[in-house]
Amino acid sequence: MIHIQNLNISFKDEQVFKDFSLSIGQGEKLAITGESGKGKSTFLNLLSGFIPDFSGEVNIDGIELNAKNICEIRKKFAWLPQETALNMMSVKELLYTPFSFALNKVHHPNKEQLTEIFDAFSLNENLLNKKVKEISGGQKQRIILASCVLQKKPIMLLDEPSSALDKRIKKRVTDYILGLKNTSIIAVTHDDYWMSRSDTVLHLGEEK
Amino acid sequence: MQNVMDINYFRLFMGYALMLIPILILWYYKTGLVKDTIIATLRMTVQLLLVGLYLEYIFKLNNTLLNIVWVLAMSVLAVYTIIRRSGLKFKIFLLPVLVSSLISILVIDAYFLGIVIKLDNIFEARYLIPITGMLLGNTIRNVIISLNSFYNRIDDEQNLYRWHLANGANRRESLLPFMRDALKKSFNPVIANTAIMGLISLPGMMTGQILGGSNPNVAVKYQIMLMITIFSSGILNVLLSITFSNKFAFDSYGNLKKDIFRVK
Questions:
Q1: Nearest to B167 by CA among A117, A116, A157
Q2: Residue B120: which of B74, B73, B62 has the closest Cα?
Q3: Span A3-62, pLDDT tens digits
Q4: Alpha carbons A89 and B58: distance in angstroms, whole number
Q5: Which of A32, A140, A162, B50 has its CA 20 to 30 A from that of B85?
């Protein structure tokens, strides 16, 4: 599904990736971990086309990553940013914004789908009537995660998906997301439980 | 027509004394704007005096080519002011903003002078130059605010912009909230100003016409038309400036270029 060969990325004098190669299969769950500054978030940003200066080959679902193809490639992703402080007024807006895009309209969730994911993530539907600033960081993270899941994309890119969740909820959310059969999931994480449930764990900074 | 009361130079000087109020306030609050205010006032004075002389000459000549060149020169100066004030780089924004300004002026001037007023020659100096001047003068503020808001907000909230892109939004969709915000910031004051027109504020052009001895009814009709043309050309200019400059301000992957700001 994702093939990377001889990837090189440098920022100023620092080489973050050097001749890095990796393959991720369809439905594979990859956890990326490592110290800060070792390129974890850079890796997700690269796949999303936010790092245009790289050398090497990156192929996503049969499409080569380059400026010409980037729009096609981005259609395959649902993305959870590390920083969930997105400037939005309401929780409803936070959940539904991706479904206002033409590509995702077809997956606009119905009542049952919404109830199912809210139950799975221990979220109360009353949250939808609140303002973003009235809810906790963990709730915000789960709302964006729910939105990612509901988009039904083949690849999910998640930056610290469980960092703001407490132990009980973390387990529930991790089990649900990593249980999605046909979805390839690439998550940057420091969470032991998430890593233990992933198919592959990549320690950046150790083997590059 | 009544004779207009002239202002002699001593009284004009007395009038300038009013500038002490903003200068003192800006100085007291250490805004760093005192020098700019004095320079702006001096520039305004020199420019208006020169314009008075030029216009007299240009109106007498009334040469189509000269009038067009004059409008072009006004546009270049307006665009220079827009880009300088919005803190963006000239080499990236000069061309798109200039083209946008020229298109919006051409469209609105042609409609207003050719269709509404039905001039035989829309390039007639007495109409083309003051109307274009009013349009440009009022548009500058809108374009500065909107360009500033649009690009600064994308830069400040890159996370939101990227979140849109990486969740399947196309370029237009991912820029939509930033465009919406820029339009709101730029045109909310225009709407408020339009709504109170005649009640609280008496617009400068209408007042000038009345002081100059025009029939108030004619002055009012021109003012209404001007408010509408200013609004339309302003919003057209903003929309085109943002749309055209997009092509130069983002890289081929749709990321905002880091070097578009002159000052940040």
A1: A157
A2: B62
A3: 999 999 988 878 888 899 999 999 999 999 988 878 888 999 999 999 998 999 999 999
A4: 54
A5: B50
Contacts of residue B251 in chain A, CB cutoff 8 Å? 52, 67
Instruction: Give the separation between CA B203 and CA A95, rounded to whole angstroms.
Output: 46
Q: Under an 8 A CB cutoff, do A98 and B253 touch?
A: no
Contacts of A205 (CB under 8 A, 6+ apart): A34, A35, A38, A39
By C-alpha distance, which of B42, B48, B44, B103 is closest to B71? B103
Residue A52 and residue B162: Cβ atoms within 8 Å?
no
Is the CB of residue B226 less than 8 Å from the CB of residue B205?
yes
Question: Which of A64, A69, A70 has the alpha carbon at shortest distance from A2?
Answer: A64
Q: Indicate the DSSP class of residue A202.
A: E
User: How close, in Å, is residue B8 to chain A by CA atoms?
Assistant: 56
Of B237, B239, B238, B257, nearest in space to B249 by CA = B257
Order of all β-strands in the sheet with A55-60: A14-24, A2-11, A55-60, A63-64
CA–CA dist A202, B259 (Å, integer): 34
CB contact under 8 A, B255 and A49: yes
Task: Write out pLDDT tens, residues B164-207.
Answer: 999 999 999 999 999 999 999 999 988 988 888 877 767 777 78
Residue type, B133: G
Chain A residues closer than 8 Å to B165 by CB: 48-49, 74
Verify whether the Cβ–Cβ distance A49 to B167 is below 8 Å. no
Chain B residues lying within 8 Å of A79, measured CB to CB: 162-163, 166-167
From A103's Cα to the closest Cα of chain B, the distance in A is 6
- Contact call for residues A39 and A207 (beta carbons, < 8 A): no
By C-alpha distance, the chain B residue nearest A82 is B159
Report which secondary-structure segment, H or E, holds A200.
strand A200-204
Dist CA A13 CA A172 (whole Å): 42
> What are the phi and psi torsion angles at B196 (to 5°)?
-100, 5
Q: What angle do CA B56, B58, B61 make, to 5 degrees?
A: 110
Give this complex's ipTM.
0.92
Cβ A166 vs Cβ A138: under 8 Å: yes
Closest-CA residue of chain B to A153: B167
Provide the CA A139 distance to its chain's centre, in angstroms.
16
d(CA B60, CA A114): 73
Contact A103 B170 (CB under 8 A): yes
Q: Is the pTM of this model over 0.80?
A: yes
Pairs across A and B, CB distance < 8 A: 74
DSSP three-state, residue B95: helix
